[in-house]
Specification:
Largest interface: A-B, 65 and 65 residues
Oligomer: homodimer
Helix content of chain A: over 70%
DNA sequence: ACCGCTTTGGAACGTTGTTCCAACACCTAG
DNA sequence: CTAGGTGTTGGAACAACGTTCCAAAGCGGT
């Protein structure tokens, strides 16, 4: 399992094959099937291992202030996925897996502590979880793009990468007036700060429920 | 291309292989490579075709009221992805593809018309697009789950599916107190209404910028 | 009617997830 | 101490996939 996470961190989900994992562990591919049912199971278990340590760590960091609880959880997940980009794609692809359910439950509990009306808690938690996993998927996509481009320096925000290529002529810039205007202000931005800004927008909306 | 979309709608991304598409078109697999570079290209083109008609349709429906413009675009995309669940996964997996850039640009333009401050337009559009694509990915995941389960009646919200299986004992319900509480109120809910509720939360947050 | 270029169709290649099974290790009962 | 059963191991084998390759067929202009 530890070996699988290392491979995933190094080369993404494409680098993790049963054969590469078997040779890394000096064993046969068939032996792995006595520990996991199939590849989906393997990825689920790997993502679960990462998320477990994250959620436990966020639990300790949350502390007393209820209004900071959601932020601690959500930013903790963000940081974890920055370190392990494949986790985002994995969680988004199979939302019923335990790691996602625990994240959702955790966010919901924080919102309850924040005083969000019961009727709206599910909707509010959904928006927050979707935002985390949405940004997370982008990071994995950006990692894919960066590894495909030979020696290219890529920002992690795939939106900006695409918008940049639009400005360099690969896509017709005239069809994207908003993007061409806004991308100039964002040439040197902080991904984490941008994610946090999104969270704040959502929290303001939630606070008015 | 039309044939590819039909196959994707019927059986998801796994059902679309170069061999199945070739036999459906009564041709060889090699011939397809003279129209698209590879499978990623094929999926990008298919998703682009769907999104083009959606965005054009939403453009017509938007009309005069600026405050309804964002809602029209975002709900239009939601409805399209309900009909073609694979589009959501495809857009989320490669955010730099033209279809995503056009969606992002369109949402940004609507926010600009709404009077959102320039500084915050990028963050606001990001949150909205992430929410759409996040919910969209869930639908594709739910379709996968429904086709895997033999004859199972599945709700489309994968969160609820997972939560239901938690309540039926597959996952330890004691670890998910929030989910076990909230899932009872949502046994018969409307997916579209829930998506719209998420959009409203975000729009309230945006309006306070 | 000829020749160049593009398109076609199907065979072939390498890689992947998965299955299968003989060999092996280990623990428990007698 | 030994025999037998249970569970694990490792590697060969299979089917399916994306992709490449190339001979054959079309098709345009001179």
């Amino acid at each position: 399992m530890h070996a699988a996470i290392e491979t995933l961190d190094a080369g993404g989900v494409d680098a993790l094959t049963f054969r590469s994992l078997a040779s890394q562990l000096s064993t046969g591919s068939g032996a792995i099937y006595h520990h996991v049912a199939n590849k989906e199971d393997l990825l689920t278990a790997a993502a679960d291992a990462v998320m477990t340590s994250v959620l436990d760590g966020a639990a300790a960091a949350a502390g007393a202030d209820a209004s900071q609880g959601v932020r601690a959880v959500v930013l903790g997940v963000f940081d974890a996925i920055s370190a392990h980009p494949w986790v985002g794609t994995q969680l988004a692809a199979a939302p019923w897996q335990p790691a996602v359910l625990r994240l959702f439950d955790r966010v919901g509990a924080e919102l309850d502590a924040l005083g969000v009306p019961e009727r709206a808690q599910f909707d509010a938690a959904s928006v927050l979880v979707h935002h985390v996993l949405g940004v997370a998927s982008q990071y994995d996509a950006g990692a894919h793009l960066a590894s495909a481009q030979p020696g290219g320096r890529f920002d992690r925000s795939a939106f900006l990468d695409g918008a940049t290529s639009a400005l360099t002529g690969e896509v017709d810039a005239a069809d994207l007036p908003f993007l061409t205007r806004v991308v100039r202000q964002l040439q040197n931005h902080d991904d984490r700060e941008q994610f946090r800004a999104g969270v704040e927008i959502i929290l303001v909306g939630i606070s008015h429920l």
